Amino acid sequence: MMMSALRLLRILLVCLRYGLDELVLSGLKHPIASSLLKVVRLGRSFEQPRGERLRLAFESLGPIFIKFGQVLSTRRDLIPLDIADELSALQDRVPPFPSEQAMESIQKAFGKHPSTLFALFETEPVASASVAQVHFAVLHDGREVAVKVLRPGMLAVIERDLSLMSMFAGFVERLLPDGRRLRPREVVSEFDKYLHDELDLQVEAANCSQLRRNFEANPKRADLLMVPEVIWEFTSKTVMTMERMHGVPVSQIDKLEAAGVDIKKLARNGVEIFFTQVFEDGFFHADMHPGNIFVSLQPETLGRYIALDFGIVGSLSEFDKNYLSQNFLAFFRRDYRRVAQLHIESGWVPANTREEELEAAVRSVCEPYFDRKLSEISLGQVLLRLFQTSRRFNVEIQPQLVLLQKTLLNVEGMGRQLDPDLDLWQTAKPFLEGWMWDRIGPRAFFSQVRKEASQWSHLLPEIPRLVHTQLARQDSLPAMRKELAQLGKSHRRSERIFIVMTLILTLQAGLILWLVATLLEWQ
């Protein structure tokens, strides 16, 4: 309790230092808030923009708040763009923890000292972040590995800071006029989930293993992306051991060019990797910034991407993929009414939303892009603008789609850093069109039939028995006789009506012929 009180006091002091109290009060539309704002501004002036002040405050408050700022920067559907852009610059500048503690964690996890488990264990960490740090090692069979060790005592620190964040979120929701729409409690809850997933290295190892399987099974895919193999016998909730990957960060373009890597092809491959993960697998690496994406310089794998750090991944259901494919298809056709209908059909906007109003809003976002060169169009920005426009229609933006949009922005930024002329749409459109045809064309139909065939194989043999059982039921016979009698009556009634109608039509036809003949005689 004392630790929480001291932590709260430190948070309040940091907020005062960077004028976050002023930011909160300036957002309140109330006479008392205006008076308090005048008081807090006495003798204080802040030259930095609000986003920079918030970023500096998060950096001062330590690893958990830095991580929170990074997650918050992905929610561009909720926070102003200037703040989101500034928070996206947050980096985990965290010093490593003592190597002795890392070795103790490994021994606690596996019951043996690292010197016994490994033929060689480098005590000096090669990387350190807010949640874990990495050491290189060599297995007894000669394989080089990277050992990721969770920071000791992180769970208690995280639980303490999360409880304080939840308390602040409640204040924001109650006090700010826009508090409910910003959904601060939901944001903190989302951050809670991400953080607890990152604290369980077995979850990250499973993500890594799934991504590797998705690409390794297909030779064409294997030439695009390399994913390290998880060494499961040396992996637990607090320690993750994986194959050591050799490469350089994708941002080091000079080194890549010097090694003979085709930079333009590398940029296109990055786009293909992203869309393959999203639309074919529905499972994608959601933290694709240059620090987590390397490029191999080994002669046999030159120019292949290397994925690292699998703490944050995104998953899309069949409904999500179908929703996205139809939206892209409608967008390419400029069918904004269909885009509006998809939002309403999905249930993400209130049922009483006027379709034509939403259509007009979507048109105002999308139409300007068709008058620009494709290379100047940002698909991530289009999605972002759609999310922001949808906000006034009370659209419930799904977290997995926000994560997708954030990752798409990362991929676009990374691709255009490699090739400023990268035409994301031209690169992605053939892939998307082919994928959508596979989804809605004949191939999709027969694929679905094959998928359901195993279920039909169990049901089809039972149909004759079920029919016989139903027909043989004594209690069903009276009802069937009654229905047959009613059908017979209806049939006879229909016959009588048909006969009467035939007679009437025959008389009418005869009358018309008689009149025609009479008129001809008069002439």
UniProtKB/TrEMBL annotation:
GO aspect biological process, one term: ubiquinone biosynthetic process
A Gene Ontology molecular function term of the record: ATP binding
Keyword field: ATP-binding, Cell inner membrane, Cell membrane, Kinase, Membrane, Nucleotide-binding, Transferase, Transmembrane, Transmembrane helix, Ubiquinone, Ubiquinone biosynthesis
Entry keyword Oxidoreductase: no
Spans traversing the lipid bilayer: 497-520
Top-level taxon of origin: Bacteria
Protein name as annotated: Putative ubiquinone biosynthesis protein UbiB
Coiled-coil positions: none
Lineage, highest ranks first: Bacteria, Pseudomonadati, Pseudomonadota, Betaproteobacteria, Burkholderiales
Domain Protein kinase: 120-499
CDD domains xref list: UbiB
One Pfam family in the UniProt entry: ABC1
Similarity comment text for this entry: Belongs to the protein kinase superfamily. ADCK protein kinase family.
SUPFAM superfamilies noted in UniProt: Protein kinase-like (PK-like)
NCBIfam families linked: PRK04750.1, UbiB
Pathway where this protein functions: Cofactor biosynthesis; ubiquinone biosynthesis [regulation]
Organism from which the protein derives: Advenella mimigardefordensis (strain DSM 17166 / LMG 22922 / DPN7)
InterPro entries: ABC1_dom, Kinase-like_dom_sf, Prot_kinase_dom, UbiB, UbiB_bact, UbiB_kinase
